[in-house]
Amino acid sequence: MPEAGEYRDLKRIWLFSGCSQAELRKIQKVLHRVTVSAGTLLVEEGQPGLLFFIVVDGRATVQRGSHPVATLGPGDHFGELSLLDEEPRSASVVCETDMTLLVLRQRHFQKVLRTSPSMVRKLLAAMSVRLRDSDARAYH
Predict the structure, then answer these.
(1) Residue spans per domain, the chain
(2) Under DSSP, is residue 24 helix (H, G, I), strand (E, B) or coil?
């Protein structure tokens, strides 16, 4: 399992897809590894979000209300919008198994952005692409 600073797949996460290797290294440095037990509620629907998660090992269920909507496993991620705002979570995530996660706190991410204005422009571009894709799916 990679150490937090060794995580190499940030570029495949849509929010970070336009970032340079130097910018990705800045993000990698503020990732924290955590281990949690099966049954742990990682995020709760309707509650403010301040954390972004990358699954290193284990499995979790995403639920809206009491309905499971997805299963997350190694390489998956969730909570990226929480890096940009503190809006309520759109779903709950519960560990099915013991898990190892990499966690990025919003305040650490904001600190990285303050030192890298070019990254802000790239994140806005990634958000624009995501919004356009969403609009295209909704209207076709």
Answers:
(1) 32-106
(2) helix
Fold (CATH) for 32-106 = Jelly Rolls (2.60.120)
Q: What is the pLDDT of residues 29-42, one digit of tens each?
A: 999 999 999 999 99
DSSP string across 30-96 = T-EEEEE-TT-EEE-TTSB--EEEEEEES-EEEEETTEEEEEE-TT-EE-GGGGT--PBPSSEEEES
Type of residue found at 137? R
The pLDDT of residue 5 is above 60: no
List the structure tokens of 112.
């990285």
| Contacts (Cβ under 8 Å, ≥6 apart) of 70 | 61, 62
Confidence (pLDDT) at 94 = 98
